[in-house]
């Protein structure tokens, strides 16, 4: 039985939602706990052929038997949370740590109205930065003080650690990507807190000695939304040549597209303490590989790319996504152990 962290390896939008959903449906966890910043990152997940974009509820909701928890380190927007709970029907499985800080309307107004954040940094305008600022100043409203959240309140760290002690599988899922970590990303073009695996463990109150696996998720063609350095960025015309055009789940803004960044992959794997990696978008390396579910059926071009990516990152690539659909995936975790 294992405790697994799933963390983004590049600038976000790596496809963590699909990877979390796959691990959940395969490993049968009792708990899926979300760390990360807050509703400023969206995860796109398919369930029974229906696409869902979630910003507050853990993307592992697709596995019906897991308790869904939001850790104390996460900012909660009650409006966004209520809407997702209503759409997804997961209220009976949801737990919100009573220590979570709340995003209020004033935070969203400040976020959108601050020129540096809105124009220079390219913030999502969801209020996370101002809410975290108020949290640091020790004047933030907490979940325990918000009436509509009362039915969800729990001690997430206690639930997670109790499950680990019982020998159950749990998943800790992150949001955002390593490249926009407040500490290790492209400062000042970053989010308002760290986004590494260590932070995710802290967000849900699980100590480092209780983590078994860290799956860092990469994208064959990295993308970035908003401003900031992007060393391997390609031109829009080059991206069109690969048939790549993407838009952010939260903002709807066009994503900037780049080539594989082996240097960043290695550094990300190191800081996150990755034990293995997942990669999405292999069908864009070779469209003929779309939907392939057997490693032996991948083309030589994709296999060569994977060999180099493994050397770059220094960890085995165990989960390979060959398309957006739920079944378009190759799981090599048992083989590569």
UniProtKB/TrEMBL annotation:
Binding site for Mg(2+): 13, 42
Main location: cytoplasm
A Pfam family of this chain: Adenylsucc_synt
Binding, IMP: 13-16, 40-43, 124, 138, 176, 191, 253
InterPro entries reported for this sequence: Adenylosuccin_syn_GTP-bd, Adenylosuccinate_synth_dom1, Adenylosuccinate_synth_dom2, Adenylosuccinate_synth_dom3, Adenylosuccinate_synthetase, P-loop_NTPase
An annotated GO cellular component: cytoplasm
EC supergroup of this enzyme: ligase
GO biological process, one term: 'de novo' AMP biosynthetic process
Record's subcellular location: Cytoplasm
Active site: 13 (proton acceptor), 43 (proton donor)
Keywords, ordered alphabetically: Cytoplasm, GTP-binding, Ligase, Magnesium, Metal-binding, Nucleotide-binding, Purine biosynthesis
PROSITE patterns: ADENYLOSUCCIN_SYN_1
Cofactor: Mg(2+)
Function, as annotated: Plays an important role in the de novo pathway of purine nucleotide biosynthesis. Catalyzes the first committed step in the biosynthesis of AMP from IMP.
Subunit structure: Homodimer.
Homology family: Belongs to the adenylosuccinate synthetase family.
PANTHER family named among the record's database cross-references: ADENYLOSUCCINATE SYNTHETASE (PTHR11846:SF0)
Protein name, UniProt field: Adenylosuccinate synthetase
């Amino acid at each position: 039985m294992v405790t697994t962290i799933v963390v983004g390896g590049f600038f976000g939008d790596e496809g963590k939602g699909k990877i979390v959903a796959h691990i959940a449906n395969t490993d049968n966890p009792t708990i899926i706990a979300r760390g990360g910043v807050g509703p400023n990152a969206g995860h796109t997940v398919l369930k029974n052929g229906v696409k869902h974009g979630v910003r507050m509820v853990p993307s592992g909701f697709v596995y019906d038997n897991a308790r869904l928890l939001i850790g104390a380190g996460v900012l909660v927007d009650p409006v966004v949370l209520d809407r997702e709970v209503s759409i997804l029907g997961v209220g009976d499985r949801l737990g919100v740590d009573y220590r979570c800080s709340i995003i209020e309307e004033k935070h969203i107004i400040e976020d959108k109205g601050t020129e540096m954040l809105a124009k220079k940094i390219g913030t999502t305008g969801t209020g996370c930065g101002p809410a975290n600022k108020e949290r640091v100043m020790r004047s933030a409203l907490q979940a325990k003080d918000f009436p509509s959240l009362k039915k969800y309140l729990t001690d997430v760290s206690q639930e997670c650690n109790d499950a680990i002690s019982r020998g159950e599988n749990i998943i800790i899922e992150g949001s955002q990507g390593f490249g926009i970590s407040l500490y290790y990303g492209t400062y000042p073009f970053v989010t308002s807190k760290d986004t590494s695996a260590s932070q995710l463990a802290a967000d849900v109150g699980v100590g480092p000695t209780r983590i078994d696996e860290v799956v860092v998720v990469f994208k064959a063609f990295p993308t970035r939304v908003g401003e900031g350095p992007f060393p391997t960025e390609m031109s829009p015309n080059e991206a069109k040549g690969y048939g790549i055009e993407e838009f952010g789940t939260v903002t709807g803004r066009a994503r900037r597209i780049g080539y594989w960044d082996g240097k960043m992959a290695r550094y990300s794997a190191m800081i996150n303490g990755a034990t293995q990696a997942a990669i999405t978008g292999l069908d864009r390396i070779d469209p003929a590989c779309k939907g392939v579910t057997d490693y032996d059926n991948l083309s030589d071009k994709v296999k060569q790319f994977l060999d180099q990516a493994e050397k770059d990152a220094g960890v085995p690539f165990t989960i390979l996504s060959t398309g957006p659909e739920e079944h378009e995936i190759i799981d090599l975790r048992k083989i590569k152990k």
